[in-house]
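Readers of this paper often ask what the protein records in our data store actually look like. The remainder of this section carries one protein's record, kept here as part of the documentation.

:::
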Amino acid sequence: MIKAALSVLLVLVAMSSTSGKYIPKSGKRITQTLARGWGDQLIWAQTYEEALYWARSRNKPLMVLFHLEDCPHSQELKKGFSEDNMIQRMLDEDFIVLNLMYETTDKHLSPDGQYVPRIIFVDPTMTVRADIVGRYSNRMYAYEPADIKLLKSNMEKAKKLLKSEL
């Protein structure tokens, strides 16, 4: 009787500890410092050049996320972004991801200015997808926590464009 109760308790504890956050199919991964809280279970590229190489060699779109640690808008988006299991799963399975706290030398990644948070999609041919935008006309690649649904839609669009154009 005690063994059965302990077994049930152990199963309940195991289920409760895994039910909240996304866990990749390959199992829990060690948190990377490159994640910076945006998706601790994701594999993040270290540099833009490395991310472009991975995107091309794995034939996956690249999502570049520009943010600052001391920016309240970045922090708010990070919270919604990291807690959304669908976004985390899609990024893990279908994208190469890079988060940057500095600007790159590629001016194509700041077509309408250098602001944060900003999310840009790049396809495996190294073409910046200027047609995948957020809801703002003055900051076309900005997203807020309320825009998570639009971000998911844009991620799906990046995947579909990849299949239809390449």
User: Anything to note?
Assistant: The helical segments are 2-18, 48-58, 72-83, 85-94, 148-165.
